[in-house]
Amino acid sequence: MKKAFEIYLYSNVHISLCAAVFCLQYLHLSNQDHRQFWLFGVLLFGSSLCLYCTHRYIGYQKLKKKDSVTGRYVSIEKLLPLYPYLFGIGLVISIFCIVQLGLEILIPLSVPAILSMLYVIPIFPQNKRLRDLPYIKIFILALCWTWFAIWYLFPLDLSTLIYLAIESFCFVFAITLPFDLRDRSIDSGDNVITLANSNSTPSIKRLIIGLFLVCIVILVLLYGNAILPVTYVILTTALYLLLLRILIYEKDFDNDFLLTGFVDGSLMIKGLLGLILLI
């Protein structure tokens, strides 16, 4: 069972599913053609599979050069022979969806798509990626996932759109910070300056608390404006409080089943709550 779960996590199927479901969470708040947006979700799954296979392969190669393949990368190393096949599956899915979707959908996705590729591909001087620039990686992640989650809502009232964007950004930022704490030693070894390795763990935990509080306040405000139903607000707030309870009491952030499994999985939980309850 543990082996099967490792394959599911480190094959990148898990994070790709989480990303796709998360970015469809507000689908029912949109009055546009839903069929095209389901295709957008499938496109996001396929492209995420390609992206994360590339990201983890490059990360593994960097560690291998330093002879420091440890932790989760031991499991990733065993699955590396599968990555070309998974990349190929993701590529075929992505091409199929791109052919089906119109330019009115593809053009708004081009900017975060380009940022996502620059995030993982080392095209900058000294073989650096966008994520290797000081402090920037967590902001890029939160910005891209927020854009993917709210771009199709532009017909909505502007103030509502801004609230949803801020809430999504703060949520993604908050659940990404624990991964920065986990990766402190790797980032320090690569001379990458992040919020986590330039601040104490208690300071990062306080930031996580603050971000989740912002999310909860916005949910309540949107409920007050009759945008979100009370059931969605209660269950999403319960998810945030559960995440806070787990992350605040976590000491070493070295339990990758907790981080990659549940913390990343909270993207899917939040997405499913939206798809089920925002009808």
Q: Describe the main β-sheet briefly.
A: none
Rounded mean pLDDT score: 91
Secondary-structure element order, N to C: HHHHHHHHHHHH
The count of strands amounts to 0
Tell me the strand percentage band: under 5%
Helical segment count: 12
Number of domains: 1
Any overview of this molecule?
Helices cover 74% and strands 0% of the residues. The protein has helices at 2-10, 13-22, 34-65, 72-79, 83-100, 103-120, 136-150, 158-182, 184-189, 201-224, 230-249, 256-277. It has one domain (2-277). It is built from twelve helices and no strands. Helix 2 (13-22) runs antiparallel to helix 3 (34-65), helix 3 runs antiparallel to helix 5 (83-100) and helix 8 (158-182) packs antiparallel against helix 12. With 279 residues, the protein is mostly helical.
List the helices and strands and how they pair.
Elements: H1 2-10, H2 13-22, H3 34-65, H4 72-79, H5 83-100, H6 103-120, H7 136-150, H8 158-182, H9 184-189, H10 201-224, H11 230-249, H12 256-277
Briefly, what is this?
With 279 residues, the protein is mainly α.
Tags for this model:
single chain; 279 residues; globular; 12 helices; mainly alpha
